[in-house]
Amino acid sequence: MAEAILPNVPRHVAIIMDGNGRWARARGLPRTMGHKKGVEAVREVVRTAGDIGISYLTLFAFSSENWRRPEAEVSDLMGLLKAFIRRDLADLHRENVRIRVIGEREHLRSDILPLLLEAEETTRNNTALTLVIAFNYGSRDEMARALRKIGEKIRDGYLTPDMVTPELIDAHLDTAGMPDPDLIIRTSGEERLSNFLLWQAAYSELVFVPEFWPDFDRPLFMATLEKFAGRERRFGGLAASSVLAGE
Ligand code: FPP
Questions:
Q1: What is the whole-number distance in angstroms between the Cα of residue 216 and the centre of ligand 1?
Q2: What is the CATH number of the domain that holds 209?
C-alpha cells in the first residue's frame, strides 16, 4: 500500500473528534445526523490506522462531561456507540483489532457496560491495531481514581509514599501498559485538550485541524500524519541539529 512508506509513523495517535454538531448545522440538518456521519469517519480512520501500521488509536467518544447534554442527544450518542459495537465488532475482530476501553465504568448503565466488556473480551488476544475507546472518560477523574487506588495500597501497607513515582502513577491509570500518545489531533478548529489524556500528553505533538469530524477522511488523516512526521520531538532535550553542530 502506498501509504506504508509514510515516514515516522506515530505509534499512538489520539483524536478528539469535534464538530459533529456544527457539521450538521452548516447543512441545516439535526445534530444527530452529524453524529451519524461521525461514526462513518470513525470507520474510515480506524481502517486507515490499521493499514499504515499505527499501533494504538484512541478516540474520545464520550466524555464524563457529555452527560450534561440534553437527554435526547445523550441517548442518541449511546445508541450510536452500541450500534457501532454490535455491527462492527465482528469486522474489527476479523481484522485482528484489539479493543480497549478507558474511562469510569462503575456507574455505567447496564445496557452499555456488558457490550464494552464483551468487545474487550472478544478481541483481547488480537495483535494488530489497538483501538482505545475513551468512554465516560475525563482525565482528572482518571487521575483521581488512580490516586485513590494508590492511597488505598499505602493505607493497607502494600506501598510506601516514597514508592510513588511517575511510573507507578502510569501503572494505575486506565491507560496502564499503553505508550503515551505521540500525536493528539483535534478537529473543528478548537485548540484545547478538554480534559483528555492530560497526564499522557506530556510530550505529545498536538495538531489542530479546521475541518469538522464528519469530514475527517483518509486523505485528511494522511495529511495530518505528514505534518506530524515533519515535527522534531525533543522530549526536553536539545534539537538534533544543535547536537550535530556541537552547540
Ligand atoms: C463532538 O461533536 C463529538 C462527540 C461529542 C462525540 C463523538 C462521537 C461519535 C463520532 C460517535 C460515536 C463514537 C464511536 C467511537 C463509534 P460535537 O457534538 O461536540 O460538535 P459541536 O462542537 O459542533 O457541537
A1: 12
A2: 3.40.1180.10
